[in-house]
Design brief:
The protein is an alpha/beta fold. The protein is 34% helix and 17% strand. Strands 2-1-6-5-7 form a five-stranded parallel beta sheet. Helix 3 (94-101) links the parallel strand 5 (82-91) and strand 6. The longest helix is centred in the C-terminal third of the chain and has 21 residues, at 219-239.
Length: 241
């Protein structure tokens, strides 16, 4: 069975959106994954379709009601991980994307307003994931980001030419820079080593560039990489006769 995504949202018309195009869209057409949307408002019990209410304790904005969200979730939850997208969640990483892509699929709950009543997050055991340290107006763009990242890792989605092994984050480093023809453009030449045909030299240059860029731009990733590589060399040294 293909990887199944179900998105609970107040705006089902936002999907598939960008996921209907390019790599993800072709994979959707080929049945490599499926996408179902559930309108949370369909679980409302009054004739106005009310899904939210004012926060206990006061404050601005509205909160999505636990009974409505629970009813919407009840119809779709199964063995798939269920995720609430929220700026308060653990930051989405490539490791999380690999874990989710390796499973049977995902159920995603998109918040709106100030968010969702805490009790339903706990009662349904939702994993809380953030797509970054900024606040979106709703969970839908975050769901699209998460699904896009997962879908491209599904078997058969990326062609043989593209590889997830060499990308940013796969070795704990950001990726090296890319160049293509022409070899000289507006007076800027492609680094000579890339024209040399010397595979080992190209690999060494790419490694050095990946390390430089990671060190300069992401001290957090660089520190983790140093710890991991130190651990690996200790393990190798211990194994040596
Ligand atoms: C306006 S936001 C609510 C922000 C919330 N009051 C807070 O300060 O954490 C509405 C919804 O957008 C989604 N959202 C906003 N930013 C997000 C992010 N960085 N990652 C994932 N979801 C996000 C969540 O579903 C959230 O419930």
């Amino acid at each position: 069975m293909s990887w199944r995504a179900t998105v609970l949202t107040l705006f089902p018309e936002m999907f598939p959106g960008p996921l209907g195009q390019s790599l993800a869209g072709r994979a959707l057409e080929r049945g490599l994954w499926s996408l179902q949307t559930e309108d949370i408002r369909a679980a409302a019990t009054d004739r106005h379709g009310t899904v939210d209410d004012t926060p206990f304790g006061g404050g601005a904005g509205m909160v999505m009601r636990p009974d409505i969200v629970a009813a919407a979730l009840a119809g779709v939850t199964d063995d798939r991980p269920a995720v609430f997208l929220t700026p308060r969640g653990r930051p989405l990483t490539q490791a999380t994307v690999h874990r989710l892509a390796a499973g049977p699929g995902i159920v995603l709950l998109c918040g709106r307003y100030e968010g969702v009543d805490q009790r339903v997050i706990e009662a349904a055991g939702l994993e809380e994931i953030s797509v970054g340290d900024y606040v979106l107006s709703g969970g839908e763009p975050a769901a699209i980001v998460l699904l896009d990242a997962c879908v491209r890792l599904l078997p058969g989605v990326m062609g043989a030419a593209a590889s997830a092994e060499d990308e940013s984050f796969s070795a704990g480093l950001l990726e090296y820079p890319h160049y293509t023809r022409p070899a000289e453009w507006q007076g800027r030449r492609v680094p000579e080593v890339l024209l040399s045909g010397h595979h080992a030299a190209v690999a060494a240059w790419r490694r050095a560039e990946a390390e430089r860029i990671t060190r300069e731009r992401r001290p957090d990733l660089w520190a983790a990489y140093l710890v991991a590589t130190a651990g690996a060399s200790v393990a190798t040294a211990t194994r040596a006769p």
